[in-house]
What does this fold into?
Amino acid sequence: MRIEANSVNAFRPVHGGNLTAFGFHVYAVFGYEQGDPMFKQGSGEPINASTYGVVVTGATESVEAFARQAGSDAGIREVVPLLLTAVFCNGH
It folds into this structure.
């Protein structure tokens, strides 16, 4: 999948795969890196020089609680209420 508006590429895990993040099923992996030919520049403005993360199935509050319990400071954002949550990786 390619999300043109904000220049981010998204990738779905293979069917039947069991990829998880903080114990939640990964729905998609997304990323963008300026200058990397794997990530095509869209017509929109990039969010940062790079951004990476996953979209998981789970309520935002639950995902954030598990991430913090694991010691992560990842950015957590609601995508679809009570269904999908984005986890943005930090660059360190």
The beta strands are 2-3, 8-11, 20-21, 24-33, 50-57, 75-80, 84-88. The radius of gyration is 13 Å.
